[in-house]
Amino acid sequence: MTTAVLLVLIVLGAIMEIRGEYRPTRTWIYIFKPLTTLLILLLAVNRGIIYGFDTSVVLIVVGLAFSILGDIFLMLPSDRFIPGLLSFLTAHLCYIAAFTVGRGFGFTLWLVVAFALLGVGLLRMLWSGLGEMKVPVMGYILVILTMGWQAWERYFAVGGLPTLAAGIGALLFAGSDSVLAWMRFRQHFHSARLIVMITYYTAQLLIALSVGG
Fold first, then answer.
1. CA 91, CA 59: separation in Å to the nearest integer?
2. How far apart are CA 15 and CA 140, in angstroms?
3. How far apart, in whole angstroms, are the C-alpha atoms of residue 46 and residue 163?
4. What is the domain range of residue 202?
5. pLDDT in tens, 17-27
6. Count of CB atoms situated within 10 Å of the CB of 121
7. Distance of alpha carbon 196 from alpha carbon 202, whole angstroms
8. Whole-model pTM?
9. What is the mean pLDDT of residues 142-155?
10. Integer angstrom CA distances of residue 118 from 45, 144, 185
């Protein structure tokens, strides 16, 4: 299956899932939420076949597989927030490993400061609503911001469109999870699910497209 065909199917799947978020029943969500992420995984595999599989490609594919698991946990009618959180936490750890394999952790001071400030700001916004979830959420924020930090370290070290795609994808992933956290711990608003899913699928797609870079 070609990249173009997969991209079309991913966009259609995302549209159907987002429409399902605003329907009275959750049938479309159950079908298209994991299916769309699976299609993104297949895109990453397809690019790995074209450009060659290495450790970073395998780690991104494994990260997408854990993301599918997280999608399934979070879409279930009963509350599976913690298993979903742990699934996406594992996905982010896979992405961190993918972005640092072969070159180690980068350390650019202004990037560290920027992501640290972003984390502090996010925690301040969520803090009063976290309750007993303070420690798990702090850990999750630390991991996802580390993922974003290392994606941008990789871009500044290597350059090129694929690494830029991963950097933008990482930021969008953090944005998606921030809105999701606000919706869960502070206040729900009508367009929240639309924002969460658009940024989420775009983030995963860009990370998949970084394969081969």
1. 9
2. 28
3. 18
4. 3-209
5. 999 999 988 89
6. 11
7. 10
8. 0.94
9. 97
10. 32, 11, 18
Amino acid found at 146: T
3-state secondary structure of 74: helix
pLDDT at 1 over 70: no
Count CB atoms within 10 A of the CB of residue 29.
21
Q: Are 211 and 162 in contact (CB under 8 A)?
A: yes
Q: Which residues of 129-157 are buried (b: 16+ CB within 10 A; e: fewer)?
A: ebeebeeebeebbebbbbbbbbbbbbbee
Closest CA to 3 of 50, 35, 59: 50
Q: Give CA 134 to chain center in angstroms.
A: 21
pLDDT at 158 over 80: yes
Position 53 scores a pLDDT of 87
Assigned token pair, 181: 């956290």
Q: Which long-range contacts (CB under 8 A, 24 or more apart) does 135-142 make?
A: 136/82, 136/85, 137/181, 137/185, 139/89, 140/85, 140/88, 140/89, 140/177
User: What does the alpha-carbon distance between residue 145 and residue 135 come to, in Å, rounded to a whole number?
Assistant: 15
Residues 6+ apart with CB under 8 A from 79: none
Name the token pair of 211: 């394969």
Cα distance between residue 113 and residue 138, in whole Å? 17
CA distance 154 to 170: 12
Number of domains in the chain: 1
Q: How far is CA 166 from CA 30, 127, 140, 170, in A?
A: 27, 29, 19, 6
